[in-house]
Design brief:
- The protein contains five helices and seven strands, in the order E-H-H-E-E-E-H-E-H-E-E-H.
- By secondary structure, it is α+β, with helices and mostly antiparallel strands.
- The chain has a single domain (about 5-165), classed as Gcn5-related N-acetyltransferase (GNAT) (Aminopeptidase), CATH 3.40.630.30.
- The radius of gyration is 15 Å and the shape is globular.
- The N and C termini lie far apart (about 35 Å).
- The structure holds coenzyme A (COA).
- Coenzyme A binds near residues 124 and 128.
- Coenzyme A binds next to helix 1, strand 4, helix 3, strand 5 and helix 4.
């Protein structure tokens, strides 16, 4: 299926309600056994703390199938001081459409350095996505909220190496 055009824009506070709805819906689909609605308040506080600490949030907009207007399709957070991605989330109606790629490449371009993140080991869709892009597993850990096992991953995108030559 052809992907719809994706537009990237920086986060502004008026997007917070739509962003939190997207986060709850996406995680509900990815891990239905966990109540993410209950974590909405945690997310709002957590994003506030990330922004306060200087982390960037990039938004992706795209037209869902059958719609004539773009809506929020996903977002990524990137700490440019260390390359850490804390959140990468795409709305399920845009899964498999290149939105996650667009966001992770944008995060790497903003940071200008290797990207690191931690993913739940049982989140097979995400682990598969990161592997396809070229992330390597560098360690193992535990999710602080759920206690579930995680994989620590790192990505050194080729375009960063080429820019250095
Ligand atoms: C993780 C996420 C951003 C990836 O975006 P996406 O658009 O779904 O990713 P893609 O469709 O490009 O890639 C997913 C891959 O997993 C594969 N996949 C899907 N379900 C799978 C399953 N049950 N088992 C194994 N692989 C699976 C897909 O086939 C695809 O691989 P392929 O391209 O090699 O065929 C998105 O799924 C998401 O927002 N998930 C919920 C939040 C999340 O997990 N965030 C990451 C936390 S670190």
């Amino acid at each position: 299926m052809a992907a719809n055009p994706i537009e990237l824009r920086p986060y502004t506070p008026e997007h917070l309600p739509e962003l939190t709805d997207l986060w709850v819906e996406s995680w509900r689909q990815a891990m239905p056994e966990i109540d993410f609605e209950e974590r909405r308040g945690w997310l709002i506080g957590h994003l506030g703390a990330l922004i306060e600490a200087g982390t960037l949030i990039e938004l992706a907009f795209a037209e869902p199938d059958g719609a004539s207007e773009t809506t929020l399709a996903g977002f990524v957070t990137i700490d440019c001081s260390n390359g850490q991605v804390d959140q990468l989330v795409v709305h399920p109606r845009h899964w498999g459409r290149g939105v996650a790629e667009a966001l992770i490449y944008s995060a790497a371009a903003h940071a200008g350095r290797p990207i690191t993140l931690e993913v739940n080991r049982e989140n097979v869709r995400a682990v598969r996505f990161y592997g396809r892009i070229g992330f390597n597993v560098t360690g193992q850990g535990e999710n602080p909220l759920s206690g579930r096992p995680t994989l620590q991953m790192e990505w050194r995108p080729g375009f960063l190496l080429m820019e250095r030559d």
